[in-house]
Design goal:
Elements lengths: L8 H7 L14 H5 L5 E5 L5 H9 L4 E6 L2 H14 L4 E5 L5 H4 L5 E7 L17 H10 E11 L2 H13 L2 E7 L15 H8 L5 E7 L3
Parallel strand pairs: 1-2, 1-4, 2-3, 4-5
Antiparallel strand pairs: 5-7, 6-7
Bound molecules: S-adenosylmethionine (SAM).
S-adenosylmethionine binds next to strand 2 and helix 8.
Length: 214
């Protein structure tokens, strides 16, 4: 993602009741913040928030938390949510490496990764959000039966992710290399990147996986 500095983004985020400024304080008690016991679904690397905002609107029976590393990107999701005021959506600026400081074991029902940065150089493989090191972090915070859903148009990253799922002993529940022409694509909500890349004619890949029960 090309990053433009957005003046005032930190201040806008800090002033929003929908941005959680000290997410570590919610560890283990996220449901209290939403004031219900609905499942918690998170998107890591949410960008400007199109996907998660539409999910939260369409599925009021779940709570959604969007995670994004950069204020200049997250601020767009915060501005959208300021207008919509969806009760089941909160936003966090943080690096996914700190996930376990923010979510307790078993607290997350589903993790979405959409068009994650590919980090094509081998020496950066550990930074890929579907690397075995990240899958291990996800496993530790997931509720029993919780799933990971990953979409990308990058075939190399998709192949790497399928290997990573297998290597980590996860169960692959479904996968496709042409989501928009597959049964898996029914009721699919497009992300910003998905919209852009599918308009260019790139097929979209998707996998759904879960850690095996211990
Ligand atoms: N998910 C959006 C979509 O599909 O349109 C945005 C995709 S964009 C290519 C990837 C986003 O992930 C960027 O906004 C980037 O800042 C964010 N990101 C990358 N690594 C991250 C990390 N370790 N923690 C949190 N966000 C991250």
């Amino acid at each position: 993602m090309r990053l433009k500095n957005v003046p005032g983004s930190r201040e806008t985020i800090a002033a929003s009741p929908f941005a959680v400024l000290y997410p570590e304080q919610q560890r283990g008690i996220w449901r209290a913040l939403f004031d219900n016991d609905h499942p918690i679904h998170i998107e890591i690397g949410m960008g400007k928030g199109k996907f998660l905002t539409e999910m939260a609107e369409a599925r009021p029976e779940n709570n959604y938390i969007g995670i994004e590393k950069f204020s200049s990107v997250l601020v767009r999701a915060v501005q959208k949510q300021e207008q919509l005021q969806l009760p089941n959506l909160r936003l966090i600026r943080m690096d996914a490496e700190a996930l376990e400081e923010v979510f307790a074991p078993g607290e997350v029902g589903r993790i979405y990764l959409n068009f994650s940065d590919p980090w094509p150089k081998e020496r950066h493989a550990k930074r890929r959000l579907t690397s075995p090191a990240f899958l291990e972090r996800y496993r530790r915070i997931m509720a029993p039966g919780g799933t990971l859903e990953f979409k990308t148009d990058n075939r190399n990253l998709f192949a790497f992710s399928l290997e990573s799922v297998e290597e980590s002993g996860w169960e692959l529940l479904a996968s496709t290399t042409d989501l928009h022409h597959s049964e898996l694509g029914r009721e699919n909500i497009l992300t910003e990147y998905e919209e852009r890349f599918s308009q260019l004619g790139n097929p979209i890949c998707k996998l759904i996986a879960r850690p095996r029960a211990e």
